[in-house]
Amino acid sequence: MTIISVPTDFNEEDLYVDLRRIVQHSLFLKCEGFNFAGSIKLKAATEMVEAAEWIGVLKPGSILVESSSGNLGAALSLIAASKGYGFLCVTDSRCNLSARRFMEAMGSRVHIISEPAADGGLLGARIAHVQALCASDDRYVWLNQYTNTDNWKAHYRTTAPAIARRFPQLDVLFIGAGTTGTLMGCARYFRTLQRQVRIVAVDSAGSVTFGGRPGRRMIPGLGTSVRPALLDESYVHEVVHVEEPDTIRACHRLARRGFLFGGSTGTVVSGATQWLSRHEDQDLTAVAIAPDLGERYLDTIYQTNWLHDLYGEDVLNPDELATDLTA
């Protein structure tokens, strides 16, 4: 029996899904969404908050403020409610309605940015708004997930060691790239182990993280319009870019087998499948990290009208539409 008194005390660390029968490759998916925040972001949020408390930046009466596309905001809203802080999430229209409602249910406020910055897009505009808030009132505390080293340290301390324990013969690890906290924490950990683990970053097409051209991105989570300060490409062996229709197809393929995952997970699975298809001649032990579950995407990725309006009616083939998505 597990009994807890605060929501951050529970996080399922050792659940993996064997995806072989779904993606036709040997791939183990590490599920990170089974906690009260619903995503891997609870780890980084907890680490950053506790570090800020330790050095005295965060104290009674403080108001946390953060730019987030959804999952980190949800995690911070949960922590703020548990600890008695205020929280204001600065996001944009791509943030899922369910994530916004989750934050508001926790007593947090959500501010939506609608106009992109000339340099940096919507993310740049979100960051500028956060900076203006902090300049206007010293009660606001910005943990800044984009530059905060406690972001990657959370995964160096928890996520990566958990994988290393379960897969001592690991060959390749697929990690989605957003702020690159998970990516950098895991990559740094495996570098210190001096094990020959290939680190493959999975990014969204249209993201500038690895020097690509900026483009439209409608699925929140992975990808950025401003290069993450945490990123050190010397730790990354390869990068796979995934188009959003491929993310959607991966999500639906998993859902048709009973696994409802979020957009970030669909991107990682799609990228991993593409990479493994190019290395079929090798006998590899491969793990991919699933950052989120799918409930927050029911009104978007799993909703027919949203899909057709943005990607056209042929975004899913008949096999992936085996059941009525509107039912």
From TrEMBL:
Top-rank taxon of the source lineage equals: Bacteria
- Hey, what's the signal peptide range on this chain? none
Q: Which CDD domains match?
A: CBS_like
Cofactor(s) named in the record: pyridoxal 5'-phosphate
> What is a single molecular function from GO for this protein?
transferase activity
Q: Which UniProt keywords apply?
A: Pyridoxal phosphate, Transferase
Q: Is Transferase among this UniProt entry's keywords?
A: yes
One biological process term in Gene Ontology = alpha-amino acid metabolic process
The cross-references to Pfam families, in alphabetical order and at most eight, read: PALP
Residue ranges of domain Tryptophan synthase beta chain-like PALP in the record? 21-289
Q: How does it assemble?
A: Homodimer.
What's the name of the protein? 2,3-diaminopropionate biosynthesis protein SbnA
Query: Which taxonomic lineage is given here?
Result: Bacteria, Bacillati, Actinomycetota, Actinomycetes, Kitasatosporales
Gene that encodes the chain: cysK_3
